[in-house]
Queue: 3 jobs
Job 1
Amino acid sequence: NRLIRNTIGMGGTAKLNNNFTLSGTINYVKTDMKTPPNGTSFGSGSDFGSVFGDIIYTPRNIDLMNWPYQNPIDGSSVYYRGPNDIQNPRWTVNNAFVGSKVQRTYGNLMLKYDIIKGLSASYRFGYDNYSEYQFYSVNKGAADGFPLGIHQTTSASNQILNHDFFLNYLTDLGENWDLTVDAGFNSVERTYQQNGLRSTNQLVFGLFDHDNFVNYTPNGLDYLVKSQSMGVYANASLGYKQFLYVNVGGRNGWSSTLEKANRSLFYPSVSASFIPTSAFAGLQNSNFLNYLKIRA
């Protein structure tokens, strides 16, 4: 097995003199992974070669580590059963590989403007993009799945663009009451694209290159998916002495993944919450209960 992961990130906030506040973060992650197949098994052995799946069907009296696992002439799997119908797990470790290489960049940029005391407007842009290369490779001579060998590769990219504009208002209504109102607009665009190729019938043992295989099957591995969703929302919260709250809100969303007649969906919400640890003096300095909230 191999897993290498490198991550770098940074962020910051700048408060300007003209009531603007600018903040943002950016992150970069690079991952390189390679492992033998280790999926589930069905019946006697695994369908496509699995280290753990084939070990399960290995008797305890078989000396696995000293048993030969590879034919010295053609490189095929060798195991204890006469028909050789279960793949030697050690052959799988040395001749079957699954892996991926991922590069991901994501972050956000936010601009906030304080209009008056208690009222602010904000815009936030979010970005998430990754590219991924995946491979599944098995030398010829396997007892499970692809006895003639297989080399399958896919290259994919996924991008998410997120736009948020929202208003926030907070005020006190007398000595005991406070009101918080949030309203905004959200838009999310998603684009996923994948290209791939499956090659079977390996010519030269040990060489994983599409030119080293006889048959090619691109069908079913290439596709493009785009979607967009938008929504407007509002929420109001009325609080009493910071221990009793009533919330009323709603959101109307539109999604391109639904039929035209059903793309608009409205989600209303009403809730109430009570915080006993703030309401009762006997619980405010409790040694066994720091915070308790009841919500309905």
Job 2
Amino acid sequence: GVGAGAAAAPSSAPLPAEAEAGEISPVPSSQSLSEGGASPEDPGGSQASALSPRRVAAPAAAANTEGSVGNAQASGSAVEVFDKKQKLREEVAQGIVRFNLHPMKGLKYLSQLGHLALEPKEVAVFLHANADKLDKTQVGDLLGREREYENGFCYKVLHEYVQQLDFGALSFDMAMRHFLAGFRLPGEAQKIDRIMEKFAERYYLQHTDEFASADMAFILAFSTIMLQTNLHNPAIKDDKRMTKEQFIRQNKGISSDGELSDELLSQIYDRIAAQLVGGRVRQEPGLAAFDSQGA
């Protein structure tokens, strides 16, 4: 017989078939029961413990925390991008201010900050892209510099500046309007000569059907500048203004390479008489009187 103080051995009944198949979870441990707030005597407590709200909410809380961190990082990145763009705008604006005071100093400032490669082609792109912000007198002075200035850098910029313009679909005087819209011609005749020489070369290469040589286009460019001065300078009396017939006659035989058509010269005269190429004419006579800066 079994003594009165001896405890009966627990039965080792087999688990239900559903548990062996994994279809139901085993009864949670006493620790989990206590966490769930159920007593060992309460069978329902085991189920409440297995579905404890704290256990279910823990993954969701972790996900929320990760989401908050991600949002904070994204917000921080957006602020950094904005700050960088703002700094870039401020530095470029400062570079333009310096350019308008001294072109080469402005270009070197932008180059030192890494915003502009100090190469002729890149500088020409910069001049075109910022034409509405740059001082047109300073741009014209830069483009008209002698070949020796800055080891020929400015002269190379002039070449690239003109190469980036397309005159293919434009008449001669309209091409001049387009060309001179981005800067003001300098007052010195030599600078005007260098600038208009490059214009003439470019226009000729795109209009070989009308012009026999670049020299012909170059001479006509000067003649057109003089015509504008003559027709629009208020200091010139009306009886001294050039007529269409005089303009056509003046431009006959300007080059041994060929002749310009009367129709072309007549159209140039009519358009110049109707509208200034650049906007206004200075009061002084001569080539320097031509002003490509709009009024």
Job 3
Amino acid sequence: IDIIQVLRFLAAMLVVGVHLPPIGMGHFGVDLFFVISGFIMAYTTAENPPSATTFLRKRIVRVVPLYWVMTLLVFAVMPLMGARSDSLPELVQSLLFLPFDNDGQGHVPVLFVGWTLNYEMLFYALFALALALGARIAGTALMIGAVVLTCMALAPAIPIFALEAWASPILFEFVFGMAIWAFLSGQGSAYQMSVMTSMIVLCIGLCAMTESWRAVTSGLPAAILVWAALRWVGTVRLPSAITILGGASYALYLTHAFVIGAVERTSGPLDTLAMAAGVSVICVAVSLAVYFWVER
């Protein structure tokens, strides 16, 4: 779906904006990514649901290689630049997508943007389990609810940082995406619809209880944007150049911090919008190169 590729590129550019000092905003891009991911997993497995192993293998091939390369690059390069080096256990946890508290900084893997992939991989694991159980949509939604509730209950008593991370209502944003597929496709059963509606209500309740409103204040607007784009643009074909940018969005997400850091070290602070715009173009160019010459 071409419009989804446009939204993926938009999400990646929003995240780039977060890390450009003159802009410093765009966290909404992460929530948009999560909602899109939930929709895509439901959409691509609707007609011929794959086996759990096939699904996981495809997801691992898509996500892991570039992330591992970038993570290992950070691990090797940062000490050479005089920055704090991560420990070997922290590297291993990062490569295995296990959340950990990085020296009191919170949920920050070796490649700092990788915290979102920790949630992505958990979602993929739950989705694969649901496929194995024959409950692709409702099963995933229920398991996300169960994981969040269980981790919320255990985190105060068991000092394992991953439990604290997985207790986040942000995981429900994947359910938002699956719900969009169910509503727009008309293929969602009454049971699936009721389960996802219940999970959305649960999400809002947990946000209120924890006073952590991101899944509501950013996740729901992201869901509305995805729904509106699909509802009004749908399957309209867009120029291939636009969809290619969406294809390179994962590379853009993982590499942009390197580009920004390199420019700052060679040219000084990025303190104007014109400089930020120029660096954004470079980030996109690098991501396209990585997409064509590495990912593909």
